[in-house]
Amino acid sequence: MPTKTTMIARKTKIYYSTYALFPANAKEEDLAYASDRLVLYRRTAGAWVAITIHASSGLASAIPTAANLPGGSLYFETDTSILKQVQAGAWVTLISKSVLLSGLIANIPGAANVVDGAIYFPLDDFYINTATAGAWVLSYDESYFTYIDGTLADFQANAATGDLNTSPQNINSNNPAAAANDNLATHYAQVLFNQEVKLNQWRQYGSANNIGDGVWKLQYRDADGAWVDWVLGIATRDTADWSAMTAATEIITKGIRLVDVTVDSSGNSWIAELEVYHD
To answer: Is 157 left (phi over 0), alpha (psi -120 to 50) or beta?
Structure first.
């Protein structure tokens, strides 16, 4: 007589919850999806065993704990452009975006949020920034750049700005009849160039309103955007004419600043015009 075989169907349960709420009494081959880990598990030999990996993206600060995820899990940091993978219970960087572009130097990301060697090219400056040990370091070779000799037209292209007492824009207006003046030390007028230029000389047009005992100084904008002293001890000129063109140490810069150091004893330091360019 032939043997009769009857198949008894077994139902596999599928659970959906956070990992901490997985049932401990689940049957073999039951499935459970951990909503907090984004991982699917199967009950095997009395334990929950991952059968998929975690894969997600978000801010670097929101990366999930590697020890809670199966090996091979992936996470893309949207603010650093770094792809990481869980290896031996820890996150390991797989791919990093080595070149970052931004509209302004002010938008440069925190160096601690990118991998060492990442490079940032600001669109409003000419200096390469390289992430090194959690800080941005200027990294460039001047031989890569050709700097033009700054002309008088370059100096007069953009009206001066600043906090001089009266009309800072007049210092580079090409009109000595319209003067600027100031009555408080540390006040300034600054001129920004449209590109990096070389400069090595200056002169001023004075005013009969001066006694001649006030003092100006010239500063230039360095690669970090800081203002650095360039020409010191410039006396307020007490005649309405040009001083001699005066040579100065050659600099490469995108900006010049005229600073009031000592107010002329007339009560105001006057200057009708300033010229700074390369010979």
So the answer is: alpha
| Total number of domains in the chain | 3
Tokens of 32: 């459970």
Assigned domain for 137 exists:
yes
Closest to 69 (Cα-Cα) out of 87, 44, 94, 96: 87
Helix (H, G, I), strand (E, B) or coil at 66: helix
pLDDT band at residue 119, thresholds of 50, 70 and 90?
Answer: confident
Classified as helix, coil or strand, 11 is: coil
Q: Based on the fold, state whether residues 271 and 167 are members of the same structural domain.
A: yes
The pLDDT value recorded for residue 136 is 85
What is the predicted pLDDT for the residue at 5?
67
102: number of Cβ within 10 Å: 14
- DSSP letters, 100-159, are EEESSGGGPPPGGGS-TT-EEEETTS---EEEETTEEEE---GGG--PEEP-HHHHHSS-
- Same domain, yes or no, for 200 and 230? yes
Claim to verify: residue 50 and residue 107 sit in the same structural domain:
no
162 and 233 share a domain?
yes
CB atoms within 10 A of CB 88: 7
Asked if 36 and 18 sit in the same domain, the reply is yes
pLDDT value at residue 109: 80
Chain Cα centroid distance, residue 59: 19
